[in-house]
């Protein structure tokens, strides 16, 4: 059954990208990046050792209607965007990543976008200015979210394409963090965007919030061999948080796990050099 599903997905992907299946299987050198770190300090040292000097952070927030039902098991039946009272999953992710990933951002400026909202594929969370640090990301999220109408159709493609535009304009390595339920209605264009983004110095981390299922995100993480390198890391936020003695460190480790190897691939492929 698993083989049939994998074969079907490979055929669908090849059709999406208008690629010859034989050429893809024989000539592509894609390799899945394995999770090889067990401590947060180790992955931080590896990031430093690979030579990450200039890095920008981009943050995306899922405002699709799936948020209304995705908290049935993981958030006491509430909408994942419930902003009153204690932290919701989105706030938790922002706070945890603020402690572990903000240090990589060399200028402290974090463009933040919402996607999947009703009548709007993509919008800046703060229309007046870009956020300085994750504290301002959290402030913008709390200020805006209650006024956002959740939408039906969901695609990560507009956000990924926007991140690529930012990379092109800055000629700098970026990490795109997407906090999402992962319940996409537009898989085709998301796949194409992920594959296209692998031609640029961009790492994509999806923090999965809600009940899942997560098969599609795991497929994006470990498959899509048409990519130039494995540019996508999926993190099952609730599973890691709920099964770890030190949830914050475990989530941070999972988020940063593939950054050292991704950046090494970017260097080997000369993707940064090709930007100039």
Automatic annotation (TrEMBL):
GO terms for cellular component: nucleus. SUPFAM superfamilies: vWA-like. Gene3D superfamilies: von Willebrand factor, type A domain. InterPro entries: Copine_C, E3_ligase/Copine_domain, VWF_A, vWFA_dom_sf. Residues 54-244 form the VWFA domain. Signal peptide: none annotated. One of its GO terms (molecular function) is ubiquitin-protein transferase activity. One of its GO terms (biological process) is protein ubiquitination. It holds the Pfam family Copine. PANTHER family: COPINE FAMILY PROTEIN 1 (PTHR45751), COPINE FAMILY PROTEIN 2 (PTHR45751:SF11). This is VWFA domain-containing protein.
